[in-house]
Amino acid sequence: WAKADGKARWTLFDPERNAHRVTRQALASGLRPAVERGEFVLDYQPLVELAGGRPHGVEALVRWRHPQFGLLTPNRFIGLAEEDGSIVQLGRWVLRTACRQARRWQLDHPGVPPLFVSVNVAVRQVWDSDLVADVAQILEETGLPAELLQLELTESAVMGSAGRPLRALRALSDMGVRIAIDDFGTGYSNLAYLSRLPVSALKLDGSFVRGFQYETQTQTQPQTQTQTQYEPQTQPQAQTQYETQGDTRHETQRAARHETQCEARHEGAPSESGGAPTDPADAVIVEALVQLAHRLGLTVTAECVETAQQAERLRRIGCDAGQGWLYSRPVPAERIAELLASGRGTCQADTEGSGFGN
Ligand code: C2E
Ligand code: MG
Ligand code: MG
Ligand code: MG
After folding, report:
1. Where are the stretches annotated Disordered (predicted)?
2. pTM above 0.90, yes or no
């Protein structure tokens, strides 16, 4: 591209850019062997019913323990894996690992309602691989009931899906696997179209939830919120323990996410008190979306729920479930096992903003 655009030529000599490109290449070429070498790990983040505060599922989120670059979040490598097709192999590994883990939890904790596992699926897995056969085989091999598996696809993966993707969605749905639309609201958001697909859940993109910090009528915001925006006000106890076990991965993840997850959809003018922008239109749209989704038989899970106020408002407008730092960051499987073993199986989304372990 540098050749094609004279103005960009200088970037060839920009050491930072060059380093970035080298890293990209290093990462891309290492993807395939890394799957075989077992360098990927899954963390799990609870999905919590807003009415009652009980976790009913977990989302599996992949990380790469890179021997050279340390622990990498998916934003660093999923795009590359999609480009070179290694996502198919990686995706299969994620699916198998997540299903095996969910089955393990189910067997180890017969006394509590089983958690379903929600797995992200890339577009190419639907188009370039036999996703249906893979899922069928993995369910068979792991013994996980199909009802305990949810697949998350983005709108762009299913919009305009005729032929192969539609047949795949139908077959998966017939097997009892649930299909959720991830990051809902960031694409075309054609609900009428989605409702005709075998889709049963929407995951409302975090950019909508950002505007949910405060009541729409309340345009002024406490100054302190500016600093705490990305932090739950009270760290869940379990999480604190985890982070003090010498595992600093979540700090790295947070830095990466800060730029990429839950960004507001539009900057808007900061409120007069200098707090984060709050858009009343977001609240109106989300409320309407939730109502419409329910009438179309879809459940709604909100992403990036970071504060108790957001959870409470989402609950009041009828949103079914939430996921976010308020409840728990993504954690290793053992932490989910501890949650199940504690017998509580609940996270209290109370007004103090406390999460697990309280
Ligand atoms: P996603 O599927 O929308 O997952 C939610 C992301 O939001 C995760 O980032 C999660 O850690 C982050 N998050 C959760 N709660 C909060 C919160 O309260 N505040 C903030 N700021 N962020 C929160 P993560 O783990 O970095 O993953 C990023 C994306 O990478 C995912 O977005 C998904 O699109 C993709 N991804 C992750 N694992 C896989 C995978 O196994 N396969 C594929 N194809 N994509 C994956
Ligand atoms: Mg997802
Ligand atoms: Mg999402
Ligand atoms: Mg998202």
Report:
1. 218-277
2. no
